[in-house]
């Protein structure tokens, strides 16, 4: 049973704009123009966040003419959710465990 969570991935998703991007991409594949419209972020800021998400393996890109589409990789999110589920199960099992003070 795994009782730790991928902290690198958590740091990536902890940023509010990156979490918003991931949430939008969970609904549909979008190009950067759509993401700028939806988030209100500046193009350079959005590009930096998308780079972080790509490097972390959270999204993949698909070139389409002069646009780049972004797609969420659901297995990464499912793996993180599984780690949290394992952590919750560990906490349930340890509810009665109490370490004695010295």
Written account of the structure:
It contains 5 helices and 3 strands. The chain is of the alpha+beta class. It has a 3-stranded antiparallel beta sheet. A hairpin with a 2-residue loop joins strand 2 and strand 3. The chain starts with 6 loop residues before the first helix and ends in a 9-residue tail after the last helix.
Keywords:
single chain; 102 residues; alpha+beta; three-stranded antiparallel β-sheet; 5 helices; 3 strands
Summarize the structure.
The mean pLDDT is 91. The longest helix has 20 residues, at 74-93. The chain starts with 6 loop residues before the first helix and ends in a 9-residue tail after the last helix.
* SS class: alpha+beta
Major β-sheet profile: 3 strands, antiparallel
Radius of gyration: 18 Å
In whole angstroms, the N-to-C terminal distance is 29 Å
Count of helical segments?
5
Following the backbone from N to C, one meets helices and strands in this order, namely HHEHHEEH
Percent helix among the residues? 55-70%
The percent range for strand residues is 5-15%
Counted beta strands: 3
Low-confidence stretches: none
Average pLDDT: 91
The general outline is elongated
Strand order of the largest sheet: 1-3-2
Detail the topology: elements first, then pairings.
Elements: H1 7-14, H2 16-27, E1 30-31, H3 32-39, H4 43-55, E2 59-64, E3 67-72, H5 74-93
Antiparallel strand pairs: 1-3, 2-3
């Amino acid at each position: 049973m795994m009782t730790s969570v991928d902290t690198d991935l958590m740091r990536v998703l902890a940023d509010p704009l990156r979490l918003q991007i991931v949430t939008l991409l969970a609904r549909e594949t979008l190009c950067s123009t759509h993401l700028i419209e939806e988030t209100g972020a500046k193009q350079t800021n959005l590009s930096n966040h998308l780079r972080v998400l790509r490097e972390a393996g959270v999204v993949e890109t698909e070139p389409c003419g002069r646009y780049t589409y972004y797609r969420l990789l659901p297995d990464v999110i499912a793996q993180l959710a599984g780690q949290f589920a394992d952590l919750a199960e560990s906490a349930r099992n340890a509810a009665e465990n109490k370490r004695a003070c010295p």
